[in-house]
Amino acid sequence: MELLTTLVDKGLRGQAPTREEALAVLETSDDDLLDVVSAAGRVRREWFGRRVKLNYLVNLKSGLCPEDCSYCSQRLGSKADILTYTWLKPHEAAAAAEAGAKGGAKRVCLVASGRGPTDRDVERVVDTIEAIKERSPDVEICACLGLLSQRQAARLRTAGVHAYNHNLNTAESEYGKICTTHGFTDRVDTVRVAREAGLSACSGLIAGMGESDADLVDVVFALRELDVDSVPVNFLIPFTGTPLSQTWELTPQRCLRILAMARFVFPDVEVRLAGGREIHLRTLQPLALHIVNSIFLGDYLTSEGQPGRADLEMIEDAGFVVEDAETATLPGHRAGLVSPRRRGAGTDLAPNA
Length: 353
Ligand code: SF4
Prior knowledge:
Its cofactor is [4Fe-4S] cluster; [2Fe-2S] cluster. By secondary structure, the chain is an alpha/beta fold. It is built from 14 helices and 10 strands.
């Protein structure tokens, strides 16, 4: 297929497709599915070999959020049957992080529900980071705490946080349909604030919330504009007790096409298979490993994933290897783009004008 030849040529050069080409990937037929996976696999292997980076979620604070994101089981008024608790103690979070690291996770993602942290919350997280570093010094730490101020971002960076996750989730034109308590621009601003503080930006999407193909292309290109380093692709988990509980619109084949489109737009960027993979990709999960170079290990924030042992077996059976702590995830030319800020807020040095 000419489209795939073009996409592979561009991907091997680290170039993104046009919007039309990205859209055309989503419109390919099931007859072409294995060709699409194979083409995305060539791009994936060029930049990431057969390595799979494992990430492990630690939910520091669960449920009772004042925001109304319709896809989220922790939202305002959620009737979802989930665990609700306030901040884990640093030693509890460190024990959870250690379990993830022992299971092979290279990155631990510290997540807290809520619109954004107070300064006191950030200090709690800083204490938690110290406790984690004591027990698991090699693990990368990503924080996901909601909307962030510049000062808070700088504080997290100084405390040794490597990355900050804040997903755009869907296209700007769709955002008002999934959330009314904050906007798309708020999310974009936080990704920028994190990057500018020297944190590696992790931001992705949720597919399967009623969006069109064009909306998916829009959000992926918005993420590319933000020059993020990792892109988690979630598939909606339709929790009972949330407004999207009846929304089941994904097939395993569509999930693979969405992942492939993301890979072509981000040839040399970490593309992570995130929430919902078990229920939407089902038996086709191993095929997704030919496209993505990163997955979550084990459970998600409020739902259970397949056991970590099954993930490791799947990776091995599919002929991939778990990425070790010594190997840089991103290719050298991208890894070098993130320079930790050493001036401006939180230092004695003047910011760069
Ligand atoms: S996604 Fe975050 S901000 Fe939105 S309801 Fe869930 S926890 Fe709250």
